[in-house]
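Fig. S4 source data, part A: sequence.
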Amino acid sequence: MIYYIVEPLHQRIFPLERACEFVAKHDLLRGSPMIIFGDPMAQATLGLPPNPGNLVLNDCDAAKEREHLRQAPVGSVGLWDNQHAMAWFGVGISELRGLGYSILFQTDREAWFGVEWVEPGNVPRDQVYVVIRKDGM
């Protein structure tokens, strides 16, 4: 259990929760034609049912993922991050504006010092989550 907590990648739940709170507080998913998640934990955190019909399906091929994001209708809303989304789907936060998205909210966090002193290759990184909306393209 302790190993799980001190593992920096597992600490991304903290900025994820802040981003989801922003989405819920502003009721951003109501009326959104499509919902976009770079981290499937956002879907669970927001209490959405499994596989809602308006979920943009992700693809581990970066070119296909960019095309899915490009094709999402104007008004689509979602959450993207700099770790899970980048590792699995190959699309960074810095690319989202070029794909037609605006950033409505951003939360940053530096992972606590943890097991990197035991496993030097496991260095904490800044953890960033953004709430996005498709504005055009």
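Fig. S4 source data, part B ends here. The beta strands are 35-37, 77-81, 101-110, 126-134.
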